[in-house]
Amino acid sequence: MQHVKIPQDRIGVLIGEGGETMREIEAQAEVRLDIDSENGSVAVETVGDPVLGLKGPEIVRAIGRGFPPEEALRLLDDEMMMFDVVDIDAAARNKNDLQRQKGRLIGEDGRTRELMEELTGASVVIYGSTLGIIGAPEEVDAVRTAAEMLLDGAPHGSVYSFLEERHNEMKHKGLEYHRFPGGQS
């Protein structure tokens, strides 16, 4: 059994209307959730497939970090899917700096965050003092690197170029992987 602590304001999202979301997570991840809505502690117990059960705490953590349940459940789509968190607070000197850093990651009208998603294929959520990422390892790595570049003060243009480059590399790898055997190269 694993214990995951999530923010108070995300407990309702985890439970869902009439417990619907909680039951869906329990059914799909083959776990049992014991939610203490007083302190935000969630006990996650594996009741079925142990490999699926390992994703249970990750799904709860992802919802706690601001992901909608449908996005968090993507972690079950494929065993390679992963969830990662970038701590924005660690890069900020004070509260004002935290707001500025979050603003850099979100971008004007959310454009930077959207570009991170579009060019990598990962899901990106900025909630509280963290940036959450759900995706395949190379997608998560690209978003983490882009976020760290922005937090280190890199100009947005360079970060967009980096993301474009990684997008093209991933697309090229996908083409290599799906090329027909015996076909023209």
From TrEMBL:
The keyword RNA-binding applies. The keyword RNA-binding applies. Transmembrane segments: none annotated. It comes from the Archaea. InterPro entries: KH_dom, KH_dom_type_1, KH_dom_type_1_sf, KH_domain_protein_archaea, KH_PNO1_2nd. It holds the Pfam family KH_PNO1_2nd. Keywords: RNA-binding. CDD domains: KH-I_Dim2p_like_rpt1, KH-I_Dim2p_like_rpt2. GO terms for molecular function: RNA binding. Residues 1-81, 82-152 form the K Homology domain. This is RNA-processing protein. The lineage of its organism: Archaea, Methanobacteriati, Methanobacteriota, Stenosarchaea group, Halobacteria.
